Structures are given as structure tokens and as C-alpha cells.
Amino acid sequence: MPAVSLPPKENALFKRILETRYQLLQLRPAQRASWIGYAIAYHLLEDYEMAAKILEEFRKTQQTSPDKVDYEYSELLLYQNQVLREAGLFREALEHLCTYEKQICDKLAVEETKGELLLQLCRLEDAADVYRGLQERNPENWAYYKGLEKALKPANMFERLKIYEEAWTKYPRGLVPRRLPLNFLSGEKFKECLDRFLRMNFSKGCPPVFNTLRSLYRDKEKVAIVEELVVGYETSLKSCRLFNPNDDGKEEPPTTLLWVQYYLAQHYDKIGQPSIALEYINTAIESTPTLIELFLVKAKIYKHAGNIKEAARWMDEAQALDTADRFINSKCAKYMLKANLIKEAEEMCSKFTRHFIEITDDQFDFHTYCMRKITLRSYVDLLKLEDVLRQHPFYFKAARIAIEIYLKLHDNPLTDENKEHEADTANMSDKELKKLRNKQRRAQKKAQIEEEKKNAEKEKQQRNQKKKKDDDDEEIGGPKEELIPEKLAKVETPLEEAIKFLTPLKNLVKNKIETHLFAFEIYFRKEKFLLMLQSVKRAFAIDSSHPWLHECMIRLFNSAAKMVYYLDSSSQKRAIELATTLDGSLTNRNLQTCMEVLEALCDGSLGDCREAAEAYRASCHKLFPYALAFMPPGYEEDVKITVNGDSSAETEELANEI
Length: 658
Hints:
Residues 420-483 are annotated as: Disordered. By secondary structure, the protein is mainly alpha-helical. It is built from 35 helices and no strands.
């Protein structure tokens, strides 16, 4: 049956692909790419039965010896098996896999697929044997332990723990079998297993151990146990170079204490205590001033504390230790951009960016290549990835920023520079006015010459287009439109541009409340009341207590305070009280929220309330002493960053005082 679950647009597109593939098959029935393409078209339409039939008929035409291993034939068999699995024919897929196992090159894929199919068919003992075999191949793969758990179906926590205890004995140096039980253990048993895990990592010097344990920080009880253990390690290592004074055995090397302090800095940063975090990271830097990871963490601490300029300075220090590290260079450029150090960021970017040639059109060759080489599993995965590419968190983040920019451009459009010049001429003398007119004429003449050059270049490219077929793809599009900041900032229809970024989010990221709240903001400005109602209802179904949702419903809480003043300017005092409440019971009393409230007080959203803004700033400064946004009046951060991390002595003294 063709899929009814596909969106209408995709369903219509795949049907057109099917028609095209059928015509190609009629024109070139002897080519295997025609048969493969026809089968893939049915697969994309989720008509698995027809796709499987076509693949089977095509397989029968392939003359291959049962004892001979052929890569292309192997990939065809694995793709055929994938279609059977997606059709829900698990028994047939397992029989198919066992029948052609000897002719498949990718033995790991065979075993992993076999384990999944045995689980689907409830043949749990056989599935357990398969996953134990996979663990022997790679004891650090999380998926194999999860598969073994599904096969053994432990009745309680102790039976579940027994699975991992067996792995401890079998793979004594394995970290994953010691990490996974920490997700479900609690109390003393959790503390005992965590103690073993941390000691192994600190002794070996494993920098990512904090990232490995980050998911545990949702549980306050576990966080307290982590802190108790690691603080105890630091105290003991300082006094006797052992994890515990009662331990028997050889002393730990000095690097163990370094990694413990490195972890503690990240720990206290995570739980919102930047002062203690800075103490630990500064101690670690004093002992080992050449370790890049320490400077990275210090930069992150300052960033999370709200001092992005100081964060950029320390990230630049890290970059200076290894100027060839592309990751550090990109991180440094990112921090400089956040600190509004545009020129320094551009110079940093020049160290790791290269000239990239667009290859979008070349992907047409890739489509035919996959058909010929039978790399069908990867090809279908790529097609499915392209359908959901804008579901990626990075696209969501970029789209969110773009929508926010267009909303601000709609609310506060940039003024025309020419109009500003005209307004200034009223106060000019005749001599100054004549000088300005001459300057404007020269600029106009220069722009005209540049335009003529562009037109001449365009005509030349169009002439060459007929002669040079090799450059056809490049020349068809003509000269590319320049990305002129002034032109981009003065877009005529900012809301329409915002909708271009919103549409993929509405189709692919429906589960995020921000998608529907951004939709509300756009439709609110377009006065599309039914779409506003639709957006609010969808957001309410996801999280009915979200503060931004309340703002959208009646501009409540922080932004609701703006609406109180908007609806009735006489209620300014009440609006300010709502916005500036810093009661500890508030669930969203964080740095970002407080910065937004201060911005609302200063930009006139609640009327003239300078005294309230200053009082609120002082209160926030006590809560977030490192945040630049809440520094007292007259404070200026004189941080001048060079690309190699140099800074003035005054800045260094200021940083030490902070």
C-alpha cells in the first residue's frame, strides 16, 4: 500500500519521481540503474511490497557465485533486507539474512541487524547471544548493552546491575559498563559504582568525564554525591596523594589532582557557583599553565557568568597555545563575535576557513553514481536526511536568530541614510552644503561606474556561457548577488522573510514550543487572528506554564508587565512590580530572564522608570556579580583583545580582582 502518512507535498513529489523512473525503465530496461531507481521510488513512497518484489526480480538477474563475495551484490542484499524490515516483515527479513549471510561483506551490519530482528521476533535467548558477541567486538558501544537488557528483560534493579557486573569481570578496563548503571542506581550503590568510575577516569586522565556524567545533573541527590566524592578526592590527594587516606596502594601521580580540580571547576560552573569554579580552575592553571583544556573551561565559566568579554579573552589565551587547532580557532571566533569583537573574529576566522566551491548541482551526478555502485542503504539514508535536515538543532538555532532579527527589523526599521543626510543639511552653511553636494555627486558617479562594470562582466559571462560547456553550471546563474549589510538590513518585507525560516520549523520541529510562539509573534504583527489562536493552542498543548506562552496570551509575567502598561499606562507601578520581582520562588530567575527585564525597563516598554531600573540593576548585580549587564554606572570593560591573546596590565589586574 502506498504511504498515507507522508505529507501531501512529499507524497506528490515522490509520485512524480515514480513516474519518471518508470519512463526511464521503459527507455533503458537493460540498465540496472533503471531497475534500482524504480525500486527506490516505491520505497520512498513506502510501498514496501512492490519495492521488495522489484528488488527480488532484479536480484535473480544477477549472476553471482554463492561462494564469491561481491561488494555491490552484498549492498543489494542488505538494502533488500532493509526494505523487508521497514515493511514489518521481520521473519522474512531474518530468513533472508541467514540465507545470504555468506555473500554479505559487512559482517558487523549482519550481526547488528540479526540482533534487532531476533528482538522483534521475541527470540530473546538468541538475541542475547548475538549481543554478547557484539560486546566482545566492541565493549564500549552503548547500544549493545541496551540490546542485551531488552533480551534478558531484568525484573528489578539488581538483575539489571548483574548484567553490568558480568561485563566488569569480562572487560575490566571498560568504561561504558561502569557508566551505564549510574543512570538507574541510587543511594549507597550509586555512590559505590560512581566511586569506581571516577577513580578510573581521574587516574587515566580523561578530560571528557564531566560531559559523560552531565546527564546525571538532573538529579539533585546524585549531584550532591558527586560533589561529596570529588571534593573528598581533592582534599585527600593534596594531603597524601591518595583518593582516600585509608587506601592501600601506590600514590597517584600529580596529574590526578589536576583532573580532579578540572572536574570541580566544571561541576561548580554547572550548578551556578562561578566564584568557586574560578578558584578551582585558577589553581589548576597555576600548576599546569600549558594545558589548553583549562583555559577553555575558564572561558566557559565567564561566559555562563555573563562576562562574555572576559570569556573571549581567555578563549583567545587558549587559542594562542595551539594556533593550528581548528576547533579552538572556531570556538575563539565564536566567543569574539558574541563579545562584539568583529574585526578580531574575522582575523581569527581567516586562520581556519578556506575557499569552498558550491557542489549542490553536482549532487545530480551523485544520484546516478549511487545507482551504478549499489550503495543503496547510504543513498536512501541521505534522501531521508535531506527531508529532515532542517530539523537539526543547529538549523533551529539559526532560524530562531533570523526570525528574531526580522521581527526587530519590522518593529524598528532602520532609517534611510539619505534621509538623515537631508535632515542634516538644514543646519549646514552654504559652503558646507556645496561640499556635501560635490561629495554626493562623486559617490553617485563612482557607483554608476561600478554598475557599468558589473553589467559588462555579466554580458561577458553570458557570451562565454555558450562557448564553455564545462563551466555551464557556474555561469547559468550569472554573477552572484553580493551580501551587502545595508541592503540586507533594509529588507522591504521582514515578516515574509521570517516566515521563510518559520515554515520548515512548523513542518519538522512541531514538538518545540518556541516554534509556535515565534509563529504567534509573526502572526500577531500580521494581524492574522485565527493563526494566532492556532499557534497559542499548539503551544499550550506542549507546555501550558511556559512564561513566553503567557506573554503571548495576554503579555503576562516579564513580558506580561509590558502588556499591563500597554493596556493601561496608569498601572505602570503594578507593571514594574510584576517585572522586577526577584523572589527566590520564581522558577525562571536566571541571568537571561533578568537581562530581558532590565532591557524592558531601560528601553521605555514600561514608560519612564529610570529609578526602578537602577534599583533592579543593583539587585541583579548581587545575584550575578560577574555579568557585565548589571555592572554599576561608569564601569567600562577596557578589554582589548589581540589575536594572540595579549592584553593590558590594567585588564589583568581587573580580572584578578573579579
